[in-house]
Amino acid sequence: MLKLSKLTDYGTLLMTTLAAAPESVRNAQELATETHVSAPTVAKLLKLLVRGGLVESTRGAHGGYRLARAPEKITVAEVVRALEGPIALTACSVHGGGCGIEESCAARVNWRVINDAVKQALEGVTLAEMAAPLRSLLRTRTAIQPPPLNEFPLTRF
Amino acid sequence: MLKLSKLTDYGTLLMTTLAAAPESVRNAQELATETHVSAPTVAKLLKLLVRGGLVESTRGAHGGYRLARAPEKITVAEVVRALEGPIALTACSVHGGGCGIEESCAARVNWRVINDAVKQALEGVTLAEMAAPLRSLLRTRTAIQPPPLNEFPLTRF
DNA sequence: TATAATCGGGACTAAATCGGTCTGATATGG
DNA sequence: CCATATCAGACCGATTTAGTCCCGATTATA
Ligand code: SF4
Ligand code: SF4
Questions:
Q1: Engineered SS bond to B107: which of A13, A45, A55, B95, CB 3.0-4.6 Å?
Q2: SS3 content of chain A, % helix, strand, coil (to 5)
Q3: Are A94 and A88 in contact (CB under 8 A)?
Q4: How far apart (Å, rounded) are the C-alpha atoms in residues B111 and B114?
Q5: Contact between chains at A133 and B157 (C-beta distance less than 8 A)
């Protein structure tokens, strides 16, 4: 459904929760009860987010998790990328996607443009804005810009 | 991966192909060879598109398919909707999505705004533009507008 | 140092979805 | 009436997703 996977959805909720108190260190269990997401799932997500460099962990007793950067410096796009790889609406928008009919596809070039639009929409929203809801998002939405012309795919289409 | 299903992808390709010659009537087999998509899949897609009101079919000998409306009047968003239902990034952005933690979700309101942004991006692209690649898309991308304020969800967040 | 708390990595299963195929009914043109 | 071609739907295998569990590594603290 052009939809986010549920894991990614929960992941952003998790990050938003972390962003609400960026300094404090909380463990997986605490975050689970705060977000109402099941504990094992939270743990799994946090692992992925750590690996993606968005969250710092401290091990051992009294350990826990904390944002790796200031909430203003983390975009929703990064969260999505950490959890489910590059943002690619179509198979061909990531290199070597292996669609098979790329050569003859009339829609490919335009999908790429649409893909970029979506990507930039996600990149324009920071965790700080997610945590402090919606006022600032209004600005963000109009900030979507066309890419410079020379960035366009040099295809033989 | 925040990705389109392959069926939807092929569906837009199919529609783009139809839009390239909006007048002519072609049958499923012809469209399959033109798009390089397997024939049964094309047939399945066309059924869905007919049901969605985007394509007209004529049955019997010399039957085939044709766009129901002018290419300028059909948006990519409609194609996506016909093939995979309402555009909903998160489970809660469609009514009765049944997320379960909606009450306590800090991210919900903002996801809704992002969802609207993506939706409008898709609504801003017509099949005519897909068929005549990319020049006109540049305009479209900047045309994304914030919704009127009173359209915002009235939540107790 | 011993112990408890906590993360890290990965394997694993169940369920849902997706992509694709097939068959029979139905409608049209000749 | 027959050949052609869409229509509707069931159907299935493959893949992906969601969720759980286990065990080894690491650290604070008593
Ligand atoms: S080449 Fe065309 S069909 Fe293949 S993934 Fe890209 S847009 Fe889709
Ligand atoms: S309520 Fe929150 S967690 Fe549930 S679907 Fe909406 S955004 Fe996702």
A1: A13
A2: 55, 5, 40
A3: yes
A4: 5
A5: yes
**Class of the CATH-defined domain A6-132:** mainly alpha
B-chain residue closest to A140, CA distance: B146
Q: Which long-range contacts (CB under 8 A, 24 or more apart) does B84-87 make?
A: B84/A1, B84/A2, B84/B5, B84/B7, B84/B8, B85/A1, B86/A1, B87/A1, B87/A2, B87/B115, B87/B118, B87/B119, B87/B122
Across the range A36-57, mean pLDDT stands at 96
Residue with tokens 């004529």: B58
What pLDDT shows up at residue B62? 87
Tell me, what DSSP letter sits at residue A52?
T
* pLDDT, greater one: A94 or B74: B74
Q: Which of B16, B35, B110 sits opposite A137 (nearest CB)?
A: B110
Mean pLDDT by 10 residues, chain B (157 residues): 85 93 91 91 93 92 92 94 90 76 87 86 88 55 36 30
- Pocket mutation for ligand 1, best pick of B9, B12, B14 (most atoms within 8 Å of C-beta): B9
If one counts every other C-beta atom within 10 angstroms of the C-beta of residue B86, the result is 14
8 Å CB contact of B4 and A2:
yes
